[in-house]
Amino acid sequence: MMRYLSTLLLALTLSLPAYALNLNQAMSALSDAKASGQLGEQPNGYLGVVKPGGQAEEIARLINQARRGEYQKVAKDNGIALGDVEAIAGKKALERTPKGQFIQLNGQWVQK
Questions:
Q1: Segment 85-103 mean pLDDT
Q2: Of 17, 7, 109, which is closest to residue 55 (Cα–Cα)?
Q3: Residue 102, Cβ neighbours under 10 Å: how many?
Q4: Which of 6, 67, 98, 111 has the smallest set of CB atoms within 10 Å of its CB?
Q5: How far from each other are the two terminal CA atoms of the chain, in whole angstroms?
Q6: Rounded distance, CA 85 to CA 75, Å?
């Protein structure tokens, strides 16, 4: 029953017209967006839109913006290139992605 309600709420949320989210709202919506196959992890350390619609683009944009800020800080603090930090983060994100969710491999979205 709880899973049904969660699925129903997600469907209703994703079918509503897009409105401006803040980062906290995007973070709260991320798990459901990934579980529903709308968003996936990319090897560059950022989220990608697998299936457009709902607020997927806005969630990805906000979270990617926050990730980039963190990656820049780590790169600066450690004297390494931003691209290296992004690649390391991407590798970890791909490895941590649960079975059934999407990751990007060789430019293609695949379900793990």
A1: 97
A2: 17
A3: 20
A4: 98
A5: 26
A6: 6
Q: In degrees, to the nearest 5, what angle opens at C-alpha 19 toward C-alphas 54 and 2?
A: 55
Q: Which are the contacts of 55, defined by CB distance < 8 A and separation ≥ 6?
A: 13, 14, 18, 19, 21, 29, 33
Residue 67: exposure state from Cβ atoms within 10 A (0-12, 13-18, ≥19): middle
Lowest model confidence (mean pLDDT) among 8-22, 47-61, 68-82: 8-22
- Rounded alpha-carbon distances, angstroms, from residue 51 to 35, 57, 101, 109: 12, 9, 12, 10
Bridge-based pairing of strands 47-49 and 39-41 is: antiparallel
Cβ–Cβ under 8 Å, residues 103 and 97: yes
